[in-house]
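User: For my dataset I need records formatted as: sequence, then structure tokens, nothing else. Please produce one.
Assistant:
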Amino acid sequence: MTFDFALARENLPALLNGAWVTLMVTFTVMAVGAPLGLLIAFARMSKRRWLAAFGAAYVAVCRGAPSLILLYLIYNGLAQLDIVRHGWAWLLFQHAFFCVVVAFALNHSGYIVEILRGGMEAVPAGLVEAAAALGLSPRQILWKVRLPIAVRYGLKAYQNEALLFMKSTAAVGAVTLVDLTSAANEIFYLTYDPFTPIITAGVIYWVINFVMRTGFGWIDRRLNRHISAA
């Protein structure tokens, strides 16, 4: 069996609709996971033991559990509890997209916590001491020195996590969302052509991957333009 260009062209709109769902899930989770990961990173690095223990437990659970398992727990578990189904929360949990965002944001933020923690711990102590000597408060040192440098240090690691996460969104088909992979599978079931829809979907995934890598590359150059200038 060979690649059918006519079939690919005919089903391209359905695949692009699926790609749009993939992008919506990816960037919504990234937007939610980033600030959540930042908050948990602060807890993880806190000098208060109970906060640090909470951060460590959060990372262990949310990063250690597969995203699909978290998705099932949210969609088929939490969303089916009576307190949820008969309360105001059902307005949100009745939507598969919301459940997907919650489950994936928990998993994604677990990785962000460790990326940020590693970046902040890698900030040279001399820079922190110099900032303190200039009269900056601990809060100013955090937001103007440690965190910006930590973001630069951790950008490459976050890029890898974001690209891997984008591909893992194929799991959303398990909770009725029709993403790119689900759209390709539906076309396969209707046409019995296993090559054309899957290869076309693979090309679209590659394009999304390329655009994301290009965007991260641009951000990296902007953040490190002082190095290039030197």
